[in-house]
Specification:
The longest helix is centred in the N-terminal third of the chain and has 18 residues. The chain is globular. The protein is α/β, with parallel strands linked by helices. It has six helices and five strands.
C-alpha cells in the first residue's frame, strides 16, 4: 500500500456505490407532519365544503344545537320553500324565513334551500334561536314517513355543521324535544310523529 494515506471512508458513498438503499433513508423532501398544520388544513377544507353549499360562516352565531323541523305541509312539485319564506316575511313580519336552511323534494330529488344567514339568530324554536341552527324539511311527517333519500341527503349537511360548530350528536334535536329541555309541556310533534329522532341521530353518527 506504500506510505500513502488511505482515503476517508464515507458510509453514504459506499451505500450509493453498492446500489443498496438503507430502509430508514428518508427522502429529503418529506417533512414530519405538524398536527397544528394538519388541523388548520382540515378546517380550511371543511369551510370550503360548507361555503360551497352557499352558507357564509364568517360571523356565524355560536351554535350549540341543530334543531330539526318539518313544515307540516304536503311537499308539492312547486318551490314550497319560497312560499314558507313569504309567509314568514309577509304574514309574521319577520326579516327573513325563520330557519337557517331547508330541504325539499324538487322533481323527486332532495334540494338544499338557504335560509337566513348563519350570522343571524333563528326564529324557529323558543329558547333555541340564539344558539340553535334551524333546519326545516318540507313535508308533513305527522302523516308520512320521511323518505330515505331525504335522510341520506341531510346527513352530510348536518355532519358538516356538527364538525364546524363542535356540536355533538346528542345536540341534534327535533323541535318537539326542545319543550322538555325548557321544562314545559310539549305543544307539537315537529319534525313529525314519523320522524324518529333516536334513529336519526344513530344514522348521522354512522
Amino acid at each position: 500500500m506504500g506510505g500513502g494515506q488511505l482515503p476517508a471512508w464515507n458510509l453514504s458513498e459506499a451505500v450509493a456505490m453498492s446500489g443498496f438503499r438503507l430502509p430508514w433513508t428518508r427522502p429529503s423532501t418529506l417533512k414530519p407532519s405538524n398536527p397544528m398544520t394538519a388541523h388548520r388544513d382540515a378546517r380550511t377544507a371543511l369551510k370550503e365544503r360548507i361555503e360551497a353549499r352557499r352558507f357564509q360562516l364568517d360571523g356565524a352565531i355560536a351554535a350549540r344545537y341543530i334543531v330539526l323541523h318539518h313544515s307540516a305541509t304536503r311537499d308539492g312539485k312547486v318551490n314550497d320553500w319560497e312560499a314558507i319564506r313569504r309567509y314568514h316575511i309577509e304574514t309574521k313580519g319577520w326579516s327573513d324565513v325563520g330557519y337557517h336552511a331547508g330541504a325539499e323534494l324538487v322533481d323527486g330529488q332532495p334540494r338544499l334551500k338557504i335560509g337566513r344567514p348563519l350570522s343571524q339568530a333563528g326564529a324557529h324554536a323558543i329558547g333555541f334561536n340564539a344558539d340553535g341552527l334551524g333546519l326545516c324539511c318540507v313535508g308533513n311527517f305527522d302523516q308520512t314517513v320521511p323518505p330515505d333519500a331525504l335522510w341520506t341527503f341531510l346527513k352530510p349537511v348536518i355532519r358538516e355543521w356538527m364538525e364546524w360548530f363542535f356540536i355533538p350528536t346528542e345536540r341534534v334535536i327535533g323541535h318537539r324535544e326542545t319543550y322538555a329541555l325548557r321544562g314545559v309541556e310539549k305543544a307539537k310533534e315537529c319534525p313529525g310523529l314519523f320522524w324518529d329522532m333516536t334513529m336519526f341521530r344513530a344514522f348521522i353518527a354512522q
